[in-house]
Model the fold of this input.
Amino acid sequence: MIGINVYLILIAIATLLSTYRVFRGPTAVDRLVAVDIMTTITTGLMVLFALYYRRMIFLDVALVYALLAFGGVIAFARYMEGGL
Amino acid sequence: MISVYYFGAISLILIGLYAVLVKKNVLKMLIGLSIMETGVNLLLVSIGYISGRSAPILSEGIGPNQAVDPIPQALVLTAIVIGVATTAMALSVAIILYGKYGTLNVEEIRRLRG
Amino acid sequence: MNGQYASLLIALPLLSAFFVPLIKGLGERGIKYYLAVITALQTGIAAWVFQQVYSTGKPIIVMAGGWKPPVGINLYIGHFAALFVLIVAVVSFFTAVFSIWSMKVQPIDKYAMLFLLLMLGATGMIATGDIFNLFVFMEITAISAYALTAYNKTGEAAEASLKYMILGGIGSSFFLIGVALIYGSLGTLNMAQIAQLAGNMNPTVAQVGLALIVFGLAVEAELFPLNAWAPDAYQAAPHAITVMFSAFVVKAGLYATARLLYLMQAVGSWHDVLKLLVAMATLTVVVAEFAALRQKDVKRMIAYSSISQVGMIAFALALGSQAGVDAGVFHMVNHAVVKALLFLGVGYVGIKLGGTAMENFQGLGKRMPLTAFALTIGSLAAVGIPLFNIFWSKVRILIAGVEAGYTWGVALILGASVVEAVYYLRFIHAMWFAGEGERMREGLAISLILLLLAALVIVIGIYPDYIWSLAQKAGSDIFNVGQYIKNVPLMEVGA
Amino acid sequence: MNAFTVLGELLVLLGTFFYFLSTLGLIRMPDVYNRMQTSTKSATLGSLGVIAGVGIWALGTDFGSAAWLTKTMAIALFLLMTNPISAHALIRAAYKRGIPLWHGSVVDKYAEYLEKSGGDGETPEGGGEE
Amino acid sequence: MGEVSKASRYLYTVIILFLIWLMLTASLDPQEVGFGLLLSLIVAAFTYEIFTTGGLSNLHPRRIAYMLAYLPYFLWAMIMANIDVAYRVLHPARPIRPGIVHCKTVLKSDVGKLSLANSITLTPGTITLDVDDDNYFIHWIWVPDEALTGDEEEHVKVASENITRPFEKFLKVIFG
Amino acid sequence: MNEILIILFTPLLAGVLAWAFDFRGVREVIGLIGAAVPLAYLVKLYPAVIEKPVDYALTVGGFTLQFQLGTMSWYFAAVASLVGLAMAFGLVATSRSGYDWLFALMSFTGVLGVFLSQDFIGFFLLWELMTFASFMMVLKRNRHESLKYFVLSVIGAYAMLLAIGILYARTGALDFETIRQALIIDVSLGTIGKGETILLFTLFLTAFGVKAGAVPLHVWAPGAYSETDQSYTAFFSGALSKAGVYGILLIYMLMGYKLYAELGTFHGHLTFAYVIAWIGAITVVVASFLAVLQEDIRKLFAYSSVGQVGYILLAFGVGSPLGFAGGLFHVLSHAIFKGLFWLVTAAIILQTGRTRFRDMGGLAEKMPFTFAMGLIAVLSLAGIPPMAGFASKWLIYEAAIQAHMPLVAGAIFLGSGLAFAYVVRFLYGVWFGQRPSELEDVKEAPLPLLLAMTILAIPNLVFGVAPGVVTGYINRILMGDVVGGDYYRLVTQTGTYNALLVSTALVIGLAIAGLVYLYGAKARRVPVTDTYQSGNPVTEEFNLSIRRNFYRPLAEALEFWLRYSWDRFYERLAKLSEDFADALRQAFYNGNVQSYSWYLAIVLLILALWGVL
Amino acid sequence: MLKRLLAITTLIIIGYWLAQGLAGVPFGQDRMLVGKYYLEHVVEQTGAVNAVTAVVVNYRGFDTLGEVTVLFIASTGVGALLWSRKKRRTARTEGSIVLTTGTRLLAPFVMLFGVYIFIHGHLTPGGGFPGGATIATAFLLLYMAFVTYEIPHRAFEKIEGAVGMTYVIVGLIGLAIGGYFLYDWIWQTWGWGHDNIGRLFSGGFIPIIYTIIGIKVGTELSGIIDNMIKEEVSK
Ligand code: NA
Ligand code: NA
Done:
């Protein structure tokens, strides 16, 4: 049993690093890439939480989240290339 | 000592308000408003949280005594939708504004005054 | 008939607003007439509710979903709500009729929906007995108001709407924080139960919560210095909508402020909040009157005047005395009549003569004598000349103010009223004694409405007793919290 | 403690490690194109690890069931499908926005291709018309 | 493939959606299953036209078998890709030599092209930047020397060999 | 139907009808009837009023409005009704518009209501009605002057409203009697402190001072009096201004004891009364000086009106019974002689269309009856026996002397001197001397106007010869033998005035003078163009004639003081506040929504600081 | 700069004040009053195991009706403000085949998933709004991928109105049958689904209302997207 703390710490570091990229940029796409990574990580985190809280129903939340995040990223990406 | 959730919620509220007070671009101000709303929503759910309890869905072995307060969560759902609606309205107003004024700088959007 | 049918007050506007997309085929005129018919129906329901409440003397408690409060959300249609829901409906009907002729901006179907939902929002705000539900209705009102403010789709309209939105957004966020604090402390959202338990609240939480709630509502209630959005919104909105803003949208905010204020009487810092509100209200009156003084645009001038009157109402409501609340409610009614009259008249002139600049009103007495006459009656009433309705409520407010020990506030308000007298006099002079022009045809429906409102101004002015008795009942509905708690059939929950 | 939980935990650990790696690449790489090179793949694999790990892990717990596995697989498949699409959309957006390649880049065949095919790859005017 | 019947396409969509439903609900409760079937029928009616052009032919056993084989192959490639990434990220010198290369594919179907593009994106040091007809433009983190030739055909050949070819043999069968 | 209700509202009703049936003849008849009814009913009620007050109550808007016809209100109402009737006759000649009738009669109702009200709500309501109507009379003719009048009236009204509010808050009552008793009791209770008492006094003084035209609140009066129909001015200046004076009496009645208790005495004199006396004295002096300097007859009488009301204030300020008697008498005298003056002015303007001295002259021949009326008015105003004006001024003077207020008495003297100066100019400038050739065709004023003048001229003579009639009634009001004597003789502690004796002497003297005039040498007629001064043509710079810059040397002597004009002061104040308003709204409503957000943040900050500290 | 400093100072003081208020509502404590009642009675009274859903749709259904209205207002308002006689899309770059094909494959799944979300609202987290938003995402993807794509907005508007009316009518049926507006007549009067608690066919009118909301939100959000993306064509 490694314990959830290790995962959480790794995820926290990962989140921090991508947050750095969100703020640092320099281009809008850089920020968006970082956000995209964060959403992916968050999805994983949500799944992990479902297990931690022993609630399978939370998995639906993760899927909804992943889906909305995907839609959002695509929208921004298309906006940036002038595809709207 | 104040809880980290409260701290986060208040921080979001203040950051949002900061954007409204300092950023000149209308869109940034609107983003500030959205951040504020997020902060308020976070505050609401934090207030409804009860240590050691789970989401108020009474399945998978969770009974009434193992669930957190369902009301704030219900309120937040409503508040989120309201926030979305406000943002949508604000964006379309911003679109008109940009069309008519050619700028989104608040200091130039002041034909109505006095 | 079952009192629960009062929920039709909410159901009808909703149902009919949702119906609009399905009857787009009726065409513009059809939808406008539809709007008038629905508002007339709403007036009918409101009249029935009014009759029920005032004849039985008991409030109607609508329990949504059949849940007893505090488990479910209840509407509390007491004397105040019954009276104001009726006013909302009647004014909406008038403006709907006015819209038939005045509203030109496309798309009309969406205008009709937003119109109905604005009416719905105000109705709900006035009727609800649940603090979060109040927030929801407040947002319904606010968001439809944002949309309608920008409806003319000019740069100015969008600008006004943006200002309204940003300030309203901040206000509602902080209102919600207040709600969160109160809920966190008491575990309930029902107003009656909050009133019941308020005394046991942690004093700091109560103080912060009450202050935040009042702050949030004060933005909607146009109190200085939170009212900077208001003149712009009034000016830029379509004329019919300005009428609604002034006649009942702001009233709903005022009412909500007063209602929550008195519900939280038991809170320790209550009297400080009152003092703060009195100060803000007084400043509202003074600043708004000064701002109106040299306006070149009549609509904006009257908007400022409206704000100052609103300040006076807030002053009365914040006095913390039965006399003050009664007077405030009385003033609300009178102000609704007068401002509906003024904004309708000004809007009518604005459309007929292509704008609401002061120049357009010169010689109005010769060009549109009926409208000019109605506007004159409205102006005189607004100034507070005796034998016009506002005089009575103004006197009541001033007396109540002095009684409550706010002589300085009364003095300042009176001083500001001098300013008000000056600009209205200039306005009257411009209409009757300056400028020339050809006589124009004045529409029948709008003339009738204007004359009706003018007649109401004078009738209440000469015989204020009836409305005053209504106002007293409605006022005690707000002030008498004990009775309010007793009227709500709270069930026992929890420990 | 059983085989499911062990395998599950291992996968989760691997997954979170790849999360870390992915964001490290986000920091270390010199331009947006190379950042995506390192981060997209690792984040996706990380997620696969975490999600599949949870699904397997749950099988070994007292509350777990096969439902956990199918649901997590649904999420995993979804990510496997969407993540490369969003990565593609992003890198394309970066290119179309004119964000220059890193100075150490050795070749840009896309630019040559676009030049050859005339336009700059944009939809011809009127492309929006039905 | 325009001649594939609507019924086939619809049915295929229903089947896929229903399978997804089963996965989502992860339940064999007749209420769920029955309702899921109903929903699949309804949603498919609205969406089958965009969802598939091939219809039931996609469920040919050979295709399914190849798909099942492709999955581990691809996963392996992906893990390798990540080890490569780990190396480049963690190496102090940051050993990269990026560039955009040009490949061609033999795949014809849209879904095939999509799968190829996604596979490329998720595997060693490559991301699909754009797809135009049969041309793939790939951002490559380490462009090998052989690809740096002035000759276009040679370049495409080298690049394709390295990037698209390994997946195509599966995808050709699965998606055509 | 209650008589009080009839007295009160007949004029208003008649006004509305006259406005509705705006046809020549119809409106005049209705208006005249409406104006005559109050007087008729007052006369009818006289015996009853002498016995005991007549009451009437009315409920409006949750307030009970009480009216009472007591000895004092009867007196004021009778004066107003007399002038009102005269005004109505005047209007028949000078006005052609239903608008005038409506508002003139409306103000009539207002004035009567003010005098009859026994509670503050009715008092205020009718006060406002009166103000509003008179304002409308001015508004029609001159926006600037009406605005000035309006603003000052509104200030006055709101001051009164605030005072009423405070009184209501402290005593819980709005009717005079309860308030009076409550304030007497409060002297021992002390719930109303000294500061608040002073505030109340100041507020009421402001409210009533405006209407009475007391310096420095008089600035509206000259403009308003001159910029309306002059028949109406007869009522405006003759009766309406008395509402302010009546208010001062009200202060005495309601708050006198309280004010005495709180403010005490000053040099053996009620402190608050002293203030009133001095305001009166200053008003008399300032207004009289300004009246002398006017070149326009309307302005002259306007200032004169202000000054004369000052006499009344001064008299009331003396605070002794004799002072009240004098003041009350002067209420009557001023109403009738100033009313008469304005009717004469109305006639002059109606017939000549001129208002300035320089355009007039020698009208006595053309308008002999009007001239005779004017002469009566002049004599009465200048305080020449045996006119009503003399009797009242004499009483005031006696009162001032008895109260040991020499400076105040001096003001009376000075005022009389100045009054003499300006009436002399009026007499000569308008009626005698060279007549401009344009005025050759001037005719006598029309009959209704002459009737109107007669209505006011007769009491001037009657009460001049028999002042005891009035003082007898005033004794009844004051409930004591304040002024002794009989119908023809007034007796005070320090002197006696025998009006009959003086009248007889005057009549004999006049008869002799008339004989001399008739049988003496004829004057030579000189055309205007023949005026030479020491053989040289008159230069424009220093052309002093009775009709042009006659008192210019006085003006030059007063130059330093004339630079300070209340009028200009107020105008500057108004401009300043408008500029301030502009600056305020431009700064606050600056259009930038970010600033507006800051306002919200600042309010939050204040709330936070209030919560944190 | 001064402004920023001022802002920060102001905000810190406000934040401190809020924190002070919150200190009176300690985190994680059980202060439930009405909430407790809900938890104890939710299953028996509403048939939903998801207490949040029961609160949202049933106990506080009035709020939700309002919430639906708010979104309707937004959709109407956006439609009104961005209205013009001729509008069309003005995209400059076509989506690549990766995006278009991906969207084709995903859209049906996303829609199905949206339905899954709102139909299970009484059992799992989720409900009408997330479900509707998910459905709208499907349309969003279509808009993103295909530069000429347009929703059938006239039909959508009508659906929006019709389902909104249905919501009110469901409430009015409650008024007619049970005597109260928004009364759950399915669960409380009919008693339908009482032996199904925890399974799909339970929860009274919650699944019905969530279906209404899901469709309504889906169409509304799609409509908003449509309005925002298209631009006026000026000739
Ligand atoms: Na993602
Ligand atoms: Na991704």
